[in-house]
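Deliverable D4.2, example record:
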Amino acid sequence: MSSWAVPEKSAAWSRTEFIVTGILSIALVVFGT
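Output generated by the structure prediction step:
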C-alpha cells in the first residue's frame, strides 16, 4: 500500500514508455517501408 510512490514511478514510467513507443513507431515506419 505504498500509494505515495505510485505517482512518481507512474509519471517517470509514462514518459519512458511514451519515448520508447515513439522510437518504435519511427523505427517501424523507417524499416517497414
